[in-house]
């Protein structure tokens, strides 16, 4: 048996009191796809950052192809044949594909020779691995799937034969993700080694050969993918049995709570983000809005939540809501019974420097309950915070912690507690489980379903198709500011929704991936 | 997570900054052939070695409390109001107009009116940049600094024209006797404490009340909650239904009013007439005071006293030795440089050493 492509021995890394990696051992065999799975904060990214030279391990050894190496910076990692594709691409937007690939690896003073060489190599690489990209296209005109390919090509151009991908499918449609996996399979056939970091069990099961599970900074297990199943992996990740499927009764819908007619949103730079859409949500129902990020869902939520102005007609329980000017602000929306769990809890839903108890009143801070004349009733706020923290099992259960000091899942619980406890007639929910660990996901989903069962209307926006499929009673797909269609979860599948998300309504035909790519690139080009 | 314990953030870092500034100042002083230790001794003695020194130190500190609070409260809304100078000048104008308008019978009537006048004029001067920022997106740093120049020009225009007293100097006539504020010497004499004749006056108490008021506003009132929330994240403010326009305007009005209050100390309490240059850079010192005081009223008060001592000690140094006046300015500038601009130079290494020191794992703390 050959030497492992990568072997980590006893890697430990602490950030102050936080033990991000504890004595990690990992062997990645050459020519395999090795998945690393774990909840947010389990230490996956830290481990890969050590491997790529961003952090220095406190203890431990790194061996590449049997040789002990020292990786003080990313240049050393590249020399060792390690390439990394980050979750957030590191591309120069107004450079061409070719320029981006050469950037940082130029030879000589004249750019022309490097570019010429790169062009030849790029052609060879794209033929070999199905990595087709126009070398002269500007990055800003490419869709995210294409940009990701550029990142992969960048690594290959630097002669990486070990490729690390950090949460690569977070921004992709299902069909783009499938294409990516085919590319990875191709790379594997050519003998490359791939490390795939993800929190999505489905992807692990689909493409990996071996999977390592991390929990709280420790490597808890490494198993052959063929010999495991999602339930076991989830249990290994969380440390207890987890319900992967949302348990809910069929919806008992009542009268219409939210009615949206011809809603249009034009953003600050004059781009039409929401193009005259209409929809309605009834009592006791969850309407899920699926779509790739940036297709107008955020703006839809913001208008309904009173954070942004729009035109058209929105009725709440039959009464029109102002969409611009006086009374269109979030304060008024809350007063008439609209709760809002925003997409980005860190810049919108919470004030990160505020204590938990201060955040519990955020948005409702003019409630007479929290006030005594012009003064805040901090005592009432703290009492309320303690009750909510106990009820929603926020950990650590200390209302004197600042929001920043809670994990993603617990931050989200604070937001959910605040918004759900008010029992709003309409709850707007954006990305409820983004960056939230599996254990908390289960809890948050239960809470949302419970609110539905109380007869409240819920509008859910999520880029996680799994979440949309399992929570929604009805699914609407948004693409380029329009609603491409509505489906019932029972009558549709990921493939159909994926095509709608890519703007293709005619779902009967087979569509080439290039066609989908083109469609997405056009829409994002317009949007940007 | 909290990188530094609170005591290090509010105590240790300013102390190290100050020490570094003094060391560099010492080097500069010895470069021009003077004894740095003797210079330091003179400065300390001059600033706090007598009731005379204390009087001047606290008089200057009063000015800096007002301008420091003005900058600090704007910081909380993430507004960098560097127009304290201009707002203080306009505030002085407001104070002077109130004092000159009526033959005041007693200072107890004149002081509240002057406070209103100074605050209104300062607030009005800050309102325009505030509005331009909130409505038109004109950057507040640019507009407030431009308004400093306009304020200064406006004052000159008035002092050589409409408000000019007979004679050569560009200044107003003396304020009526009834508008004179009681000095610290007079107040302390009532309780039998001897104190030197200094410009320190009752405005110092007004400054202390202002500190308490700002604390109450920021950490106890709904408006303060909204100001701090808006300062941390504007999208969050919009999410919570807090109007950015309203908060920007109110914060700038309060900030300008605080800067304007400086006029009661300098103009009403000391000069007793409106001079052409009555602010003497206190508006800019306020920025350093707010930075060093971590935008907290108590910190502002302490930093203001420190800068007051530097001013007074510097004046003594100039008086007693051949250290030129410019050297005093250099020392003050070094303190501002180290406490304000170079804060990160100390903070970074200190945070690292603290982290290394407390390098023990705690359960339940998320990684990454």
From TrEMBL, chain A:
Example GO molecular function: ATP binding
InterPro entries registered for this protein in UniProt: AAA+_ATPase (IPR003593), ABC_carbohydrate_import_ATPase (IPR050107), ABC_transporter-like_ATP-bd (IPR003439), ABC_transporter-like_CS (IPR017871), P-loop_NTPase (IPR027417)
Major location category of this protein: membrane
Matching SUPFAM superfamilies: P-loop containing nucleoside triphosphate hydrolases
EC number per UniProt: 3.6.3.17
Region Disordered, residue ranges: 508-528
Location in or out of the cell: Cell membrane
Biased composition (Polar residues): 519-528
Residue ranges annotated for the ABC transporter domain, each copy included: 6-241, 258-505
Keyword Nucleotide-binding: yes
Keywords per UniProt: ATP-binding, Cell membrane, Hydrolase, Membrane, Nucleotide-binding, Repeat, Sugar transport, Translocase, Transport
GO CC terms: plasma membrane
Record carries keyword Nucleotide-binding: yes
Entry membrane topology: Peripheral membrane protein
Family membership noted in the UniProt record: Belongs to the ABC transporter superfamily.
Full protein name: Galactose/methyl galactoside import ATP-binding protein MglA
Gene: mglA_2
UniProtKB/TrEMBL annotation, chain B:
Intracellular or extracellular location(s): Cell membrane
Bilayer-crossing regions: 12-33, 53-75, 110-128, 140-160, 200-219, 247-268, 274-291, 298-315, 327-346
Signal peptide boundaries: none
A GO cellular component annotation in the UniProt record: plasma membrane
Bilayer topology term: Multi-pass membrane protein
Keywords per UniProt: Cell membrane, Membrane, Transmembrane, Transmembrane helix
Keyword Nucleus annotated: no
InterPro entries the UniProt entry points to: ABC_transp_permease (IPR001851)
A molecular function GO annotation: transmembrane transporter activity
Protein name, as recorded: D-allose transport system permease protein AlsC
Species per Swiss-Prot/TrEMBL record: Palleronia marisminoris
UniProt lineage: Bacteria, Pseudomonadati, Pseudomonadota, Alphaproteobacteria, Rhodobacterales
Gene name, Swiss-Prot/TrEMBL: alsC
């Amino acid at each position: 048996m050959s030497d492992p492509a990568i072997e980590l021995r006893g890697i430990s890394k602490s950030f102050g009191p936080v033990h991000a990696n504890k004595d990690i051992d990992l062997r990645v065999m050459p020519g395999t796809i090795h998945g690393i799975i774990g909840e947010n904060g389990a230490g996956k990214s830290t481990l890969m950052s050590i491997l790529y030279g961003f952090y220095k391990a406190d203890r431990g050894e790194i061996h590449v192809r049997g040789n002990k190496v020292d990786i003080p910076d990313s240049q050393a990692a590249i020399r060792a044949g390690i390439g990394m594709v980050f979750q957030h691409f590191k591309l120069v937007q107004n450079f061409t594909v070719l320029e981006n690939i050469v950037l940082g690896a130029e030879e000589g003073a004249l750019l022309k020779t490097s570019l010429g060489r790169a062009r030849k190599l790029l052609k060879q690489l794209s033929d070999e691995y199905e990595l087709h990209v126009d070398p002269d296209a500007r990055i800003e005109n490419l869709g995210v799937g294409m940009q990701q390919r550029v990142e992969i090509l960048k690594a290959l151009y630097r002669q990486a034969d070990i490729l690390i991908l950090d949460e690569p499918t977070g921004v992709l449609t299902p069909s783009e993700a499938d294409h990516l996996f085919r590319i990875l399979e191709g790379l594997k056939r050519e003998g490359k080694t791939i490390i795939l970091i993800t929190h999505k069990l489905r992807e692990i099961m689909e493409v990996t050969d071996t999977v390592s599970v991390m929990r709280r900074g420790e490597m808890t297990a490494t198993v052959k993918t063929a010999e495991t199943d999602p339930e076991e992996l989830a249990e290994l990740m969380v440390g207890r049995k987890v319900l992967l499927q949302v348990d809910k009764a069929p919806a008992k819908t009542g009268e219409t709570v939210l009615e949206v007619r011809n809603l249009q949103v034009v953003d600050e730079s004059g781009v039409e983000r929401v193009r005259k859409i209409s929809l309605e949500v009834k009592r006791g129902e969850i309407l899920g809005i699926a779509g790739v990020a940036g297709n107008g869902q955020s703006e839809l939520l913001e208008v309904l939540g009173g954070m942004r102005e729009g035109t058209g007609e929105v009725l709440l329980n039959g009464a029109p809501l102002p969409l611009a000017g006086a009374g269109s602000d979030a304060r008024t929306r809350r007063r008439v019974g609209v709760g809002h769990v925003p997409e980005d809890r860190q810049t919108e839903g919470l004030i990160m420097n505020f204590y938990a108890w201060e955040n519990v009143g955020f948005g409702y801070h003019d409630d007479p309950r929290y006030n005594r004349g012009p003064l805040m009733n901090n005592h009432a706020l703290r009492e309320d915070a303690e009750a909510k923290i106990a009820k929603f099992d926020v950990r650590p259960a200390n209302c004197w912690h600042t929001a920043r000091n809670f994990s993603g899942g617990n931050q989200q619980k604070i937001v959910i507690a605040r918004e759900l406890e008010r029992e709003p007639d309409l709850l707007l929910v954006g990305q409820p489980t983004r960056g939230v660990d599996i254990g908390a996901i289960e809890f948050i989903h239960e809470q949302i379903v419970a609110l539905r069962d109380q007869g409240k209307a819920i509008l859910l926006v999520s880029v996680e198709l799994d979440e949309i499929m399992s929570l929604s009673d009805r699914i609407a797909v948004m693409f380029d500011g329009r609603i491409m269609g509505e489906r019932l979860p029972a009558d549709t599948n990921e493939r159909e929704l994926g095509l709608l998300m890519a703007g293709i309504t005619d779902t009967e035909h087979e569509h080439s991936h290039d066609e989908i790519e083109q469609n997405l690139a056009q829409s994002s080009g317009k949007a940007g | 997570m909290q990188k530094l314990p609170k005591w290090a953030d509010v105590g240790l870092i300013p102390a190290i900054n100050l020490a570094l500034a003094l060391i560099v100042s010492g080097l500069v002083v010895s470069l021009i052939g003077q004894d740095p230790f003797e210079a330091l001794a003179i400065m300390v003695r001059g600033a706090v070695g007598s009731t005379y020194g204390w009087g001047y130190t606290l008089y200057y500190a009063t000015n800096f409390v007002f301008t420091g609070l003005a900058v600090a409260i704007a910081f909380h809304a993430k507004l960098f109001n560097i127009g304290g100078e201009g707002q203080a000048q306009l505030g002085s104008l407001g104070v002077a107009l109130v004092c000159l308008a009526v033959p005041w019978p007693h200072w107890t009537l004149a002081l509240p009116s002057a406070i209103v006048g100074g605050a209104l004029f300062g607030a009005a001067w800050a309102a325009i940049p505030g509005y331009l920022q909130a409505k038109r997106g004109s950057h507040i740093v640019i507009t407030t600094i431009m308004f400093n120049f306009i304020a200064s020009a406006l004052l000159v225009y008035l002092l050589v024209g409409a408000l000019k007293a007979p004679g050569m100097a560009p200044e107003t006539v003396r304020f009526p006797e009834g508008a004179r504020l009681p000095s610290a010497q007079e107040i302390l004499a009532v309780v039998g404490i001897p104190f030197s004749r200094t410009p320190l006056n009752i405005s110092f108490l007004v400054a202390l009340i202002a500190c308490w008021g700002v604390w109450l506003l920021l950490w106890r009132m709904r408006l303060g909650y909204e100001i701090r929330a808006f300062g941390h994240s504007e999208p969050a403010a919009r999410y919570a239904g807090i109007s950015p326009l309203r908060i920007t305007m109110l914060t700038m009005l309060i900030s300008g009013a605080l800067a304007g209050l400086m006029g009661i100390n300098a103009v009403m309490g000391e000069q007793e007439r409106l001079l052409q240059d009555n602010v003497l850079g206190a508006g800019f010192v306020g920025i350093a005071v707010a930075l060093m005081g971590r935008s907290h009223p108590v910190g502002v008060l302490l930093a203001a006293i420190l800068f007051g001592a530097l001013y007074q000690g510097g004046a003594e140094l100039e008086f007693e030795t051949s250290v030129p006046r410019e050297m005093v300015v250099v020392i003050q500038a070094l303190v501002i440089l180290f406490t304000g601009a170079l804060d990160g130079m100390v903070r970074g290494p200190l945070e690292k050493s603290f982290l290394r020191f407390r390098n023990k794992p705690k359960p339940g703390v998320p990684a990454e």
